[in-house]
Amino acid sequence: YLSFNNISIQTGGRNKNHYPVFVDVDRKRAGERLGRIENISFSNLQIETSGNILIAGQPSAPLKNISLHNISMRVRDCHDLSKQKKPRGNKNTPVFADTKDLANVNAHVVIAYVDGLHGNGVQVVDECQPGTRKPVAEIGITAKANRNRQP
Questions:
Q1: pLDDT of the residue at 148
Q2: Cβ-based neighbours of 149, under 8 Å, separated by 6 or more
């Protein structure tokens, strides 16, 4: 397991959106296979941001065994994410038809295409205008379990 524990995160900067937590499966070039990400745990995170969390696999390459425990996120100064695109590493990196960019899902926490999501506490304190974003969006989650201990 790769574990991120007991971390305080405050985001800010020149970009419109910030990702205090960003986990993503994608490809950089045609013909490449999608990557594989599995066995990651986030626990005891204190986050202050105007951005959002994006943890996303792809339908054909889901993330596996992701744990979220005791995460507190205070969100301020939100903006609409409906036209947002995820960071691609290079502005010349193409977008492929068989991959999904979920940066435009208008939620504080977006978790998508995960096989084995474990958790017992993601709290969002929303200081944005009412209705700006929904708290959590879960898309294509399989084998979800809420537990009081990490796997």
A1: 43
A2: none
CB 43 within 8 A of CB 66: no
CA quadruple 102, 79, 19, 121: dihedral positive or negative? negative
- Among 24-28, 30-34, 94-98, 140-144, which is the least confidently predicted range? 94-98
Taking the complete model, does pTM exceed 0.85, yes or no? yes
Cα-based distances in Å from 64 to 35, 36, 70, 139, 141: 12, 8, 20, 14, 10
* Sequence-distant (≥ 6) Cβ neighbours of residue 141 within 8 angstroms: 111, 112, 113, 114, 117
Strand, coil or helix: what is 89? coil
Give me the torsion for CA of 45, 49, 65, 31, rounded to 10°. -150
